[in-house]
Amino acid sequence: MFKNPIVKKIAFALVVTVVGYFLLIGTFLLDFAFQSIVSFVLRLFIPADRLYTPWFPPTMHVTYALLIGIISWFILTSKANLLVKATWLMVPLAVLLATVGMFLNQWPGLVYFMGSLITFGTIYFIYRRKLSWLYYYAVLLVAGGLLVLMLTGTDI
Fold this sequence. Notes:
Number of helices: 6
Radius of gyration: 18 Å
Helix content: over 70%
């Protein structure tokens, strides 16, 4: 399709960026829908004063993160092509980093430390597996984007 390798790399990077961006928007919208639907269904059976306890919202976030983790495991271990896997890698990484940020937001230093551990651990995993540069790009795009959001005080 692309004869020039530089043009091919730029096109792949653009696909990962644009499609990954829309995947992330969709993922966080799906999180909202998931929590809304589960809350609605549970309110049919459990009184609101017993349902909305301090442990309920964190449990919902962890449940959704686990669901994304399971879906991601199937996608990332499938025979899907490189572009699909590299683009999808942005989703579980963003969910994990956002979840860490939500749970540890009272301790910004710890958020930066854990985010760094997760990011560099992922990069090390990619390096050890000798995966394509597109995986590195996806990781740096997500980590950099969430770092900018955190430094500017923007909420997801």
